[in-house]
Amino acid sequence: MTIKEKREPQNPRYNARKTPETIEKARERSRVHREKRRYEGPEAYKQRAHAAYVKYLQPKLLTDPERYHAKISEHHARRHRIERYRRGQILKQWFFKHAWVRDELPWKSHRPVLYDQNTGHYCAGCEWTKYGGRRLWFKNLVDESYLCQSCYIPPSPDWDQIMPKGYEDIKTLKDLKARKQQLDGSGAPPSR
Fold it and tell me: Left (φ > 0), alpha (ψ -120 to 50) or beta: where does 132 sit?
């Protein structure tokens, strides 16, 4: 018996139902269902989220609240210990709060672009157009393509490539302002 024969179910009724037409009909039903859920609106989404909370999280919270809260806080603490997450969040704060960080620093390969509203771009890294768009994108200085933050700061980032030229070792805003003053010979613009 070959591996393929082992994978195929021996039930003839199952194999008879698995025709190209039935597979295509199932895909169409699934697509219609996804589209319907996508455009139901925020109220329907809130109702589904609350139903999931009641079904899965509320029983755990009611049976052993100390253990549940300890597990959640441990998860958050573990996440903040990861350098990629921590430094990525710091960079994101700098981009949102200080226009001079985005506009005046000498970025190597991509310049951060912040929009007033969520804007959809095709991300060249994940090869996907982000649903709903993003406010923060990274525009390639050479070919005008875009990266989302997840692709610009990958799971194993090389911070020398991510940070601007001359600012590779900077980790705080205070150090960033001091380095800018040192390199430019003038003070960094005040934050807004």
Answer: left
* 98 pLDDT higher than 90: yes
Q: Is 127 left (phi over 0), alpha (psi -120 to 50) or beta?
A: left
Whole-angstrom Cα distance, residue 77 to residue 73?
6
For 2-14, give the DSSP string: -HHHHHS-S-HHH
DSSP state of 189: P
Predicted confidence (pLDDT) per residue in 50-75, tens digit: 887 778 777 877 788 888 788 888 88
Distance CA 126, CA 133 (A): 14
Gap between the Cα atoms of 3 and 97, Å rounded: 58
Sign of the CA dihedral with 12 first, then 15, 21, and 25 last: positive
Q: Report yes or no: 85 and 154 within 8 Å, Cβ to Cβ.
A: no
Give the distance from CA 41 to its chain's centroid: 22
**Who's near 100: CB < 8 A, 6+ residues apart?**
180, 188, 189
Structure tokens of 115? 């929009």
Q: Find tokens 């960080």 and name the residue.
A: 101
Other beta carbons less than 10 A from residue 143's beta carbon:
7
**By the 8 A CB rule, do 92 and 149 touch?**
yes
Q: Give CA–CA dist 47/53, Å, rounded.
A: 10
